[in-house]
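Aim 2, interim progress: modelling of the 5-O-phosphono-beta-D-ribofuranosylamine-bound target.
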Amino acid sequence: MIRLALFASGSGSNVENIYNYFSNNTNFIISKVYCNNANAGVLERCKRLNLKSLVFKRHEFFESSLVLKDLIETSDVIVLAGFLWKIPENIIQVFSDKIINIHPALLPKYGGKGMYGMNVHKAVKENNDAETGITIHFVNEKYDDGAIIFQAKTSLKPSDGIEEIAQKVHELEYKYYPKIIEQTFS
Ligand code: GRF
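Predicted structure of the complex, ligand included:
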């Protein structure tokens, strides 16, 4: 049984989608949701889905081994699903090549510090791109820099606003992320 730790900072729609995908899977289990924001919507989803969660503060994450110790006890791999902080070196080393992330654009375009959520879609819109998509990649000590595992594209119309772009990207995330998690860690 492979134990998946999910990291999120916001709404958690990807967390719920991943939970649903693996709910009848005998090879994978969601161990716990790790969150850096006590007000995040993902925590409401955890309550509703009866998922364990651990909320931590910046100093606990970056200046202590609290989260790492918990991860070692609970989980085999780490899946970032809308988590906005860099992963500290101590976790990267222990979970080397066992941490993946989903980015809501076609990296290396629109990646790096500050490029998350609607900021990404705004940049795509401002550049009048004819397509966008998702990138699933291994995580290293930099933002959005690890080896790319998978990308999927969606075409854009000039009339698409950032909400429509976000919706098209979310649809790709929900369709592909669970499958790629399963493929990557099976
Ligand atoms: C998604 O767009 C994902 O690509 C990015 O963060 C967002 C999380 O959305 N990494 P949600 O919290 O899962 O709804």
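Strands lie at 2-8, 28-35, 53-55, 77-80, 99-103, 131-138, 148-155. Residues 8, 10-14, 81-82, 102-104, 117, 173 surround 5-O-phosphono-beta-D-ribofuranosylamine (CB under 6 Å).
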